[in-house]
Amino acid sequence: MQIFPLLLTALALHGQERGYTIPLIDLAHETARQVIVDRDPGQYLGHPTTLLLEDGRTMLIVYPKGHGKGGIVMKRSTDAGLTWSERLPVPENWATSRETPTIHRVVDAKGRKRIVLFSGLYPIRSSISLDDGREWTPLKPIGDFGGIVAMGDVMRLNDGRYMAVFHDDGRFLKNGGKAAKFTVFKTLSSDGGLTWRAPEVVAEHPEAHLCEPGLIRSPDGRQIAMLLRENSRKFNSFVTFSSDEGRTWTTPRQLPGSLTGDRHVARYGPDGRLFITFRDTTHESPTRGDWVAWVGKYDDIAQGREGQYRVRLMDNTKGADCCYPGLEVLGDGTFVTTTYGHWTEGQPPYIASVRLKLGELDQRARVPFDTPLVKVVRAANVPGQKSRLHKHDLNRVMVHLDAGRMRLAFQGGPDNEVAFGAGEVRWDPKGGLHTSENTGGSHYRIIEIELKNPGVEEKLPAPEAPGQYSVELENQQVRILRARYGAGESSPLHRHTLPRVVVFLTPFHVRSASSNGRTTEIRARAGDVMMLGADEHTATNLSEKPFEVVIVELKSR
Predict the structure, then answer these.
(1) 57, 299, 324, 407 — which has fewest CB within 10 A?
(2) Is-cis flag, bond preceding 151, omega within 30?
(3) Angle at 315 (CA atoms; ends 311, 318), nearest 5 degrees
(4) How far is CA 401 from the centre of its chain?
């Protein structure tokens, strides 16, 4: 697991940032969170949606045998997604599906429950179950209209009707259409999903290609937000709002880079925060093309703020071919999110899920690493913020991401004023009870590296690449290096013999060629933190700008 806070380095894109500054928590390698739902050697499995039934345990999933187009597969879980059935019998004509299937729960005015499965393009068809997915009607047209990714979302309105949303690019709304403008539509049902009205336009843009809508109702129930993929890739994702139950919508505006992606699916957690999962298409992101999520508040979306943090859920190994997700929230606050992707390099995509709680992510946001050798803590302080009385039982290395000033007031001792610059490294020995206070005029962030390693007295040899690496400090527990590479600069072959914490002070794009013949590209953002092991390699800066990192080597017996 890694976490990567970012400095404000993103560039504007049509009035919005290309990247994001909120932390990124990486769960991609935490396989204990992952459940394989279905995998078929040699068969492309894609684009699932899920539905959690009212018992809080039974979950259905549908997905195509192919990229959108392909026969629909259905499975059932009776333990909230921990295990899954074999593929279940489905109507024969589900094999004729030509677009990503979606399933939704609907309830009519008399309280009768149904599950509706949609399959898009022309015409949009539906299949209905009256017994929680055991029996289904064959796919039948819902009207003389078509569309893509139908239905992107379905929401119950305050008057009991259902609003379903989808998009089209001119080819499928009517039979025999031609590609033209991307348009987002709504259609309404007054009888619990049995019939649907002719579609109406709800969102379009003169330049942006808006599609794949996802709906979120505000916590007070008075507003609906619609998040939209942007398919020209010239803009960030978009959002539009309705305060009259979908009758009228605001002019679509761009979202921050932190929410830019494809096929947004959102659910509220027990504490009222939103968890939104999607494919990462942010223009400047180290996880671009991967399966990610965003955590924040509805008001962050309404006010155009970045939110609290991002999460990489799994690492997609082939381009951006992944992540049309399902998302459910269990009674204990566990999020179960499920999607397809190329999770194994060189293999066709398959279906997997990830399980997590927001409390777990909150802890990771503050403590990205806690190992037998070191604990890395992310700290941030606003002007005037003062800590409680506390002490540190371990020596620490402090890497200051921002310039600032603090006052350390020790119990029974004088105050100590400390000023620091951005990128400065400071040795902070363990000490007695004290408070700390931000006495400067600006917010600052610090990467605090608490040292558990006992250390050794032996002094390390000089760095093997002196043109790029210089020693800032060395003692019994650590050697601290500062590495600077110019634009396009390469280092000679050199060794890192100790485990190390790397703090990136600038954006970073490097090709590392190990002595064993393996070559990898590594991207990081200013403020990112990684833990790396011993290695022998050359490094080439692939960026047009210099980069700078701080390396804390951990001495141990």
Answers:
(1) 299
(2) yes
(3) 135
(4) 23
